[in-house]
Amino acid sequence: MSSDQIGAVDSQHEASHKFDYFLQICEDQGTTLYRKNVLTIGCGDGAFTNALFHHEAHVTGLDRSVRKLTDAKSRNPNITYRKGDAEHLPFERDSFDVVIAFGVWHLFDRPKVLSEASRVLSEHGTLLIVSEKVISSNESSETASFFPEEWYEEWEETKWNISNQWSVEDVSSKWFPEKTFFQNDQKLNQFNLVEVETHYNCITLRK
C-alpha cells in the first residue's frame, strides 16, 4: 500500500458507509433520529452531521472552530451550522429532540453541558453520547471498555436517567501507519501498517 493509499483509507465514501451502519444500529437500539430535530455538539468537519442529514434528520451542527465549520459547510451547504460552545448553547429552550456528542464528551465541562442539553431538549428528548475507541488487531476487544465511572456519577448527580447503552463495532477494518524503531539499524522512524478497528460505545440519557 502506497503513502497515497494510506491517506485515502478514510475517504468520504468509507466514512459515509461507516456512519450509515452506525445510524442503523442506533435505530435498532431504539434511538430514532429519522426526521428528528438533532443537534450535534463539537461537530468538527461535518462528516457525521452529513450522514445524519442523509438519514433525513433535521440536523444542526455546532462547533467553536471557524476552520472546521468552513470545512463542514463545504461538505454540505444545506446543513445548518452555528459557531459556539457546548457549555453555552446558542439555542432556545426545547429546540431539539436529540443532542449528540460524538467522540467529544471528554473535552467538555460536562456538568455545564448536561445543564445546557437539558435546557434545549424537548420534554422527552434524548442525549446520545458516543465514545470512540480504536484498537489494533493485536489488542483484545475487551480493552474497548465503556465509560469512566465518574461520568456515570455525574449523570446520576444531575438526575439524568440511563435509557440504553450499547457498543457498535466498526463494519470494516482500516490500516494505519505505526511507527517502528530498530536498534542498531539506520532505518529509524520507519512506518509499518497495522490493522485497526473502531468501537463506538453509546449511551442514551433522558431528563
Structure description:
There is one protein chain. With 207 residues, this protein is an alpha/beta fold. The protein has a single domain, classed as Rossmann fold, CATH 3.40.50. 29% of the residues lie in helices and 34% in strands. Strands 1, 2, 3, 4, 5, 6, 7 and 8 form an 8-stranded mixed β-sheet that branches. Strand 2, helix 4 and strand 3 form a beta-alpha-beta unit. It comes from Pontibacillus salipaludis.
Would you give the CATH topology? Rossmann fold
- SSE order in H/E notation? HHEHEHEEHEHEEE
Number of domain modules: 1
- How far is the N terminus from the C terminus? 49 Å
Helical content band: 25-40%
Indicate the structural class: alpha/beta
Helix tally equals: 6
Shape: globular
- Mean of all residue-level pLDDT scores: 84
Protein name: Methyltransferase type 11 domain-containing protein
Domain Methyltransferase type: 39-129
Family: Belongs to the methyltransferase superfamily.
Pfam families: Methyltransf_11
Overview in brief:
Helix content is 29%, strand content 34%. The chain is of the alpha/beta class. It has one domain (3-170, 200-206): Vaccinia Virus protein VP39 (Rossmann fold).
